[in-house]
Amino acid sequence: MKRRLYGPEHVAFRETVRTFLAKEVTPHYEKWEADGIVSRDAWLAAGRQGLLGLAVPEEYGGGGHDDYRFAAVLAEEFARAGAAGLAVGLHNDVIGPYLTSLATDEQKRRWLPGFCTGELITAIAMTEPGAGSDLQGIRTTAADRGDHWLLNGAKTFISNGILADLVVVVARTTPEGGAHGLSLLVVERGTAGFERGRNLAKIGQKAQDTAELSFTDVRVPKDNLLGERDGAFGHLMTNLPQERMAIAVAAVAAAEHLVEATTAYVKEREAFGRALARFQHIRFEIAEMATECAVTRTFVDRCIEDLAAGELDAVHASMAKWWATELQKRTADRCLQLHGGYGYMTEYPVARAFTDGRVQTIYGGTTEIMKEIIGRSLLS
């Protein structure tokens, strides 16, 4: 079906993104995978190409686009290229909205220009070893010391954790406040007491640096409070729908690409003297996956429209996230099976897609959390 979501300006932007990926990402990706980290040069190249800070006002060096469809194009093309390591989606779609909507004018002048050039790489530190998705379980504390906050605690599974120059830390500022006693503090690279642990070894997305972070008596200036004191819960709930949509958009694009690649493979690969595509079982598998992708694409595109119009709610974002990521996981498994033994070889893109995509149903809120949000809305 012809997609009606994008206009000529989005089509032109898609070509820009594809050219960038072909020139600045794909030729270097195997090295990044081996190194376990992306070169900072790639971030600077993304900044020069105008791919960072799409929604940041032009006065701070951003694209000035409040149309989420540009971000969706970026997510789709990075997913199709298998370039999860260069986490521009995290930078733009997750951390970007906190800086543009919550930062003071002074903070914006300090941080947003570097955010857009790629000189300041960002991360958000929410997950803790014992807390997971439970905000009430956060133990990192920030004590008010008059002219600064004294930050103590540990975070884990932090994407961009090694490269990040600015880390938005979720910390407890009111001990008895539960999930509503949390605030967002921005910790900058080089701050005394802020340490990075090991670059965590993962089964997929090996080029994406994921780290443990620790904070020991870190003095965070009062000027680095992002948003309202004890307001983190509300801030997080406001921005989570966009984060989850970014994951959903990438998930359905990855699933579609896998089906396209596998369709081409079964046309060429022969078994028992004929192409795999001539076996009815293979045709049924392709038909089922293509139909599931088409149906999912229709729903996700509608959610993108609603998000661009400021009308997407948390429930439908959760539906899109869990459905699209489970589809991606299921499609990767089926496509690998159709590749046979070759699908298990890392030289075939389907192998990396299988391991890279597995985390999609986990981060940004697990499938189980998504179902809980949906179920609560229907049954409360």
Identify the notable features of this structure and list them briefly.
alpha+beta, 380 residues, 4-stranded mixed sheet, single chain, 4-stranded antiparallel sheet
What does this structure look like?
By secondary structure, the chain is of the alpha+beta class. Helix content is 50%, strand content 15%. The protein has 11 helices and 10 strands. It has helices at residues 8-25, 29-35, 40-48, 68-81, 88-102, 105-117, 232-268, 280-308, 314-339, 349-356, 367-379, and strands at 122-125, 141-144, 148-159, 166-172, 182-188, 194-199, 210-221, 225-226, 270-271, 274-275. The strands form 3 sheets. A 4-stranded mixed beta sheet has the order 1-4-5-8, with helices on one face. Strand 9 and strand 10 form a beta hairpin. The protein is globular, with a radius of gyration of 21 Å. The mean pLDDT is 96.
Average pLDDT across residues? 96
Structural shape: globular
**Terminal Cα span:** 37 Å
What is the structural class?
alpha+beta
Question: Which value, in Å, is the CA radius of gyration?
Answer: 21 Å
Beta-strand portion reads 15-25%
Helix-strand layout with pairing:
Blueprint: H1 8-25, H2 29-35, H3 40-48, H4 68-81, H5 88-102, H6 105-117, E1 122-125, E2 141-144, E3 148-159, E4 166-172, E5 182-188, E6 194-199, E7 210-221, E8 225-226, H7 232-268, E9 270-271, E10 274-275, H8 280-308, H9 314-339, H10 349-356, H11 367-379
Parallel strand pairs: 1-4
Antiparallel strand pairs: 2-3, 3-7, 4-5, 5-8, 6-7, 9-10
Helix pairs in contact: 1-4, 4-7, 5-6, 5-7, 7-8, 7-9, 8-9, 9-10, 9-11
